[in-house]
Design goal:
With 181 residues, the chain is mainly β. It has one helix at 93-96; strands spanning 5-10, 13-18, 24-30, 35-41, 48-51, 57-60, 68-77, 84-91, 102-109, 120-125, 130-136, 143-149, 156-164, 173-180.
Length: 181
């Protein structure tokens, strides 16, 4: 493209497309009330265009959209003081390698203060060790609970495990477990 301008006249507006330096493409839109200029980069890049607030656009790296995986939509009663696997997730490193660290979210219930109430531990095990764990003590109000996950570095079968804080007593419940990356 040469350093020439192209003027397109329309009623009450003038649109000017120009490339004064060869490094940008500018579009000026003038009208009686106000003018606005948008400056486009002329280089090719991956990602999306971001505006700096003054009309100058630049390339921004694409960020992956959040990925949510429903692991269990059922009610799970936590009845054992030893770890019990309640769900699995297949971690495919070739698909998930670019994911940011994850978060496990679930609803915990029936742990309110009282004689015999128990807390719970929810963990995610990758076959060799725990990559994330949430400990919810007895007396915690019913509600959303979360904990962070360290992403595996190779293909893994992840086990989601639950443990009650002590034998007997009231069994806590979990409703809906999801992983978000």
């Amino acid at each position: 493209m040469s350093n020439e301008s192209l003027n397109l006249s329309m009623p009450a507006e003038v649109v000017t497309v120009k490339n004064p330096t060869g490094a940008v493409l500018e579009i000026d839109i003038d009208n009686a009330s106000s003018g606005y200029k948008v400056i486009f980069p002329v280089t090719n890049a991956a990602g999306s265009l971001s505006n700096n607030g003054s009309g100058t656009l630049s390339w921004s790296a694409a960020t992956p959209a959040d990925s949510n995986f429903m692991i269990s939509s059922s009610q799970i009663s936590v009845t054992s003081a030893t770890a019990v696997t309640v769900a699995y997730f297949a971690w495919d490193q070739s698909l998930y390698t670019s994911f940011p660290a994850g978060v496990c979210t679930f609803w915990a219930a029936n742990m309110a203060t009282g004689i015999g109430n128990r807390g719970i531990t929810v963990d995610i095990h990758d076959g060799t060790g725990v990559i994330g764990s949430g400990i919810i003590p007895a007396g915690t109000a019913d509600g959303i609970q979360t904990f962070s996950i360290t992403n595996p570095t190779s293909d893994k079968r992840l086990s989601i495990r639950v443990t009650k804080s002590a034998a007997a007593g009231t069994d806590p419940d979990i409703f809906g477990i999801q992983l978000k990356f």
